[in-house]
Amino acid sequence: MKPAQRHRLLQIAGFVVAAVVLGGVFLMYTRPAFMVTMIDQLWACF
Which residue in 4, 9, 27, 46 has the fewest CB atoms around it within 10 Å? Predict the structure, then answer.
């Protein structure tokens, strides 16, 4: 595999991973109870 092809493949993979992460974050915002639970657990650390 040529270096240019490998770079392009890694770039596409990075975009796909970023899109999946952002999609997951968006889905979590549609569940307010989950968000409240996460914030409560985070606050409990302090």
Answer: 46
